[in-house]
Design a protein that fits this description.
single chain; mainly alpha; two-stranded antiparallel ribbon; disordered N terminus
Amino acid sequence: MQQDKQLSRATGQAKINNLEFRFGAFGAMIPLLFFVVWAITTSVLQLSSEIGLVLGAIFGITLGLFFSKSKWADYAQGLFEGLAQPIGVVAMVAWFYAGMFAQVLQVGGLVEGLVWVGTVTGFTGGLFVGLTFILAATFSTAVGTGYGTTVAFCTLMFPAGVATGADPTILFAAILAGAVFGDNLAPVSDTTIVSATTQDADVPGVVRSRFKYAIMAAIPSLILFIVFGGGGSANQQANIETATSPNGLLMLIPFVIVLILAISGHHIITSLTWGILTAVVMLIIFPIGAFSDVIRFNPDSDSIVEGALVNGIVGYMNMAILILLIVASAHLLRLGGTMQAITNALVKWIKNSVRKAELAIWAIVALLNSAITINTAAEIAAAPFVKEIGEKYKIHSYRRANMLDAITSALGYIFPWGAPVLLGWSTISMMQETYEWLPIVAPTAVFPFVFQGWFLVIVMLVAALTGWGLRFQGKNGEELKQPPRS
């Protein structure tokens, strides 16, 4: 509320509560719908670029003006309020810190160290992909950020895996799948916290109750990653094998420090800061990299300041702008009444069926995540409707939170126009500057293979259809197998 008042004073306008569009609720979808079509089309035509996606988002927002029946000034004000939401800013800062951390570890030779481990132990091809999925799942569960996991693992594990014979597309999918696992299960994940608090549930209880869903999706995912993860080019392996060295494995120490701090309850920014500092100190003490590769001043360069820390920030500038524009476009959906219209239609369909109520919850969350490509933003948008429907049919808060979070975490890392997929694609593209032989995997190529995401969506759909795991809310918040008597 205080932020709203400050924003109103700064802009000289009252907070916008609703907007009217031509074609009603559908008109409010135009900005996001245009961006989705733009993203898919450019990706299929292999014309994707970060700045091109930013331009597509701006085109969509501009097009929305012509569908607005409200004053254009009110449309612009609503857009700026969407840009000011903390969701996008939090994601940006996490990217920057994760990007700096991964780039410093790369300077220390961790990629080459991982390749050395793979070639010595025989963990190559599909086995390396399976290991990547496990490590990404572990890391994201500990630090609570799937986006940060995507950045770090696309920087470190992707080139190492490709160099040891892993299929690039399946390897990229394994990284995204591991991020799904942790985003869904981590107690400190923003999606976990949002799903629990919006449904009036405690975080520990929510995490305990959702483990069975996550592991049921993870086991077949791991098997498929191992089976289909091989088949990479031996030529790519030869390009890096001569540079492999176990010395770079020293960079696992700051990696483990980040894990320990995150598991201990420290904020992700705090954990990554200590990781960066530890890595820099190790570069100074041990002959595994040059401090000048971390940060240096070059008067002859346009940017003046160069090095890993700069790369970790600059590499995500366009994506940072893009996420703000997407969050703002999603805010226009709420102002235009799109989500309320969808909910009203589903409530009429449900009538008195608990099964239909859960299917409606599944559908609402899935639909919003297909349009709003920032998973936390989609979750916040869906949460009030999930709570309204769930409470009406006495569905337990743990169950509501699990339906909300599992589908959100899964679909956020699947769709080609989704922010995490584009973030990983952007990171891999940036890594090609260091490893020229590294293939770039298109977002449209990877989405069918994010097995953890697809299985998690299917598991929750089956749970809604069959009632598996369904519990009802008692008067004192206890879990009941049967609905309480009125």
